[in-house]
UniProtKB/TrEMBL annotation:
Taxonomic source organism: Adineta steineri
PROSITE patterns: G_PROTEIN_RECEP_F1_2
A GO molecular-function annotation: G protein-coupled receptor activity
Gene3D superfamilies associated with the record: Rhodopsin 7-helix transmembrane proteins
Mode of membrane association: Multi-pass membrane protein
One GO location term (cellular component): plasma membrane
Transmembrane segments: 20-39, 51-73, 93-115, 135-154, 169-195, 219-235
The protein's name: G-protein coupled receptors family 1 profile domain-containing protein
Amino acid sequence: MSSTEYILQQIIYQMTQGALPFILLLIGTSNSMGNLITFTSKQLRSNSCGFYILCMTIFELLTISFGLISRIADQYGSTLVNQSRMYCKIRSYFVLCFPTTATYLLLMAAIDRYISTFVSVRCRAFIQLKVAHRMAPLVIILCMVICSHTLIFVDHQPTCGPQLGSYGLFYSVFLIVIGGVLPNFLLVLFGFWTIRNVKASRRRVVALQYLQHKQKRDAQLVLMIFAQAIVSFLLNSTRMSCYSYHLLTTNRPNSSFQQTVDNFLVQFSIVLAYTNYSESFYINTLM
């Protein structure tokens, strides 16, 4: 065994059975608690963007708590996922549904801030709180529906996982496109459009002047969403690159070193996934 392979195996151990899963669980839970306290405040509770982020936070907490705790249980000897077909399907569904929903709720917050930069009163009517109260449940239901294929096609193979063949390919494409590339591309796109509109509005002479504290609050929300979009894009781009490489090499005959590299990339991509749902409060604090 080469020294590089030994180092990679030690890193894999820390990412699976070492301290890192517990650290992520602590950081992720604190992140969600901080957001819950912040976005249930009187000022932000009545803001449509704040409502989307509050809903996102709930699903981030579900992602971290359910996903990491079940993962830690697996690493420390639990075999329930490979013994119970029902648990296998439900766990696979939640592990996919919770983070997907959190991501698209963040996208709704980004779209909300983009619309808030419009001058048109008719367009700005879509950022009312009552609209957010209707859109957020709709997004949640849609995410629950589009992730429901796991309840049918994930099973023991003989261990818990997607069925081999065409569904395995579909599942991989779903993770990469629907769970990563599409929402993060839209997050960054709406973020840049929002910043562009904010800069343009500063150059315009507008007859109606908004209250200074409201302008400051809206500008801060725009900055928070844009920062989250950039961080999410960077983390997911790295994660999807690792996962795509794993898919491309998974059926090739590999040496012991290559298998270690593949395992490292898979575990690293999982760590990045949970990190992505553990950072929003800390980014908001820095803003």
